[in-house]
Structure formats: structure tokens, C-alpha cells
Amino acid sequence: MEDAVSVRDLVVERGGRPVLRSISCAVPRGAVTGLLGPSGSGKTTLMRAIVGVQTITSGTVTVLGRPAGAPELRRRVGYLTQAPSVYADLTVRENARYFAALHGRGHVEADRAVTDVGLGAAAGQLVGTLSGGQRSRASLACALVGDPELVILDEPTVGQDPVLRADLWAQFHAMAAAGTTLLVSSHVMDEAARCDRLLLIREGRLVADDTPDAVRAATGVEDLETAFLRLIRANEAGRDGAAGAEKS
């Protein structure tokens, strides 16, 4: 089975400055793939390219067998941005039902999505009165209500308490077990262990594309944060060595 997402030699420049530097990676179907890296590393830019709303300089992005951004993908891809993308003057329930209607879904599906993200008790509240973490969950409900094949989540657990974070990750894995593909970004390295596959990005470069166990085996350490540091240093040393060879 082909991958849900295939990225080949992707380059994105902004203001003449490289943001993504020849990225090639894949997101397997029916799994939770983590996109990890520090703030400013290019995670959001890569996600925007996959959704099809990012201008790219060169390379290709294929999503569910179609070019990224193709009109027929709109109902097949769910996207949660870092900034809440819901209407502040509507209640949580009204937002979910509005987005459900756009996907041809009913009130039952909308109300279930609200409950699934832990907002059942706040369903009647105006979004404008919610906390930042609650607004993010309201946006998540709206992204999931159409039952998309591919779900792209940009920092979905930021601002959530530990119990809710665990509940959300359990929901993500339940969705993957049912066949949904998820790409989840985070700058919190302890979330790496919750993923089936990892993409580690730093300064616009892909440092790792493997399973958590393979990353541990390659670096000889169990702690994934330590493993990532070793990979980053090895990657930087390799670039420095290549640069020195070119000069000589």
C-alpha cells in the first residue's frame, strides 16, 4: 500500500532564506507519525506544504495519491492549525455542528466529536469564553468531525494538562487503529515515544525518519531526547566535514 504522504526533495524559501532544505520523507497509512523539532525548525511549513497551502520553491508533495492541495482532498484531509480556527461568537456545539454540516454530517457526529476531545461539559459555552487549551480542543473537534482519512495536527497538546494529553494520545491511537493516518507535530520530545514513526526536523533539515525503537538502536540510548541530540550532533558533524572537504 502506498504511503499516505510522500514528500520528495521539498525546498521552501521565504524572503530568499531557506526554510525547508530538500526534505524527503513519507507518512505511512494507518499510523501516528510524529513530526518533532524545536520551534522555528520548519514543522509548520512542512505541514502547510502537505495541506497544500504553502508556496514551494521546488520538489513534490503527494497526498493520498494526489498532488497536495488538489480540490478532491478537501474532504479527505483534516487540519488543525496552531491558532484556534473556530468562531468565538458561537458555542463549541454550534461550531462543531457547522463544520459537520460542511462535510455532510449530522448533529450526532458533531456532538460525538465534542465529547471525544473532552469538551462535553463545555459544549454550550461560547468559544470566546474558553481557555486557550479548550479553544484548541474545540478546533480539534471541528477538524475531526468530517472523519478524514488523513489528520494533520500542529501542536495539538500545547496548553493541555497531563491527563488530557494522555487522553488525546489514546484517541489518536484509536483513530489510527481504525485506519486513520495522523501526522502530529510537537516540540516536546517526551511525546516522541507515543508515536509509531518519527520525523525529526531541525533548521529545515530532516535529521531522522524512523521508528522510536530504530532511533534508540541507532544511537545506543533508550532516552529519545538523548538519542535526538546524538543524531543532531552527528548530522552537524557530517555537514561540517563535507564543508571542509569542499574547501580543501
TrEMBL record:
Keywords: ATP-binding, Nucleotide-binding. The keyword Transport does not apply. Gene3D superfamilies: P-loop containing nucleotide triphosphate hydrolases (3.40.50.300). SMART domains: AAA (SM00382). Pfam families: ABC_tran. One of its GO terms (molecular function) is ATP binding. Transmembrane segments: none annotated. InterPro entries: AAA+_ATPase, ABC_transporter-like_ATP-bd, ABC_transporter-like_CS, P-loop_NTPase. The keyword ATP-binding applies. Residues 5-228 form the ABC transporter domain. PANTHER family: ABC TRANSPORTER G FAMILY MEMBER 20 ISOFORM X1, ATP-BINDING CASSETTE, SUB-FAMILY H, MEMBER 1. This is ABC transporter ATP-binding protein. The lineage of its organism: Bacteria, Bacillati, Actinomycetota, Actinomycetes, Micromonosporales.
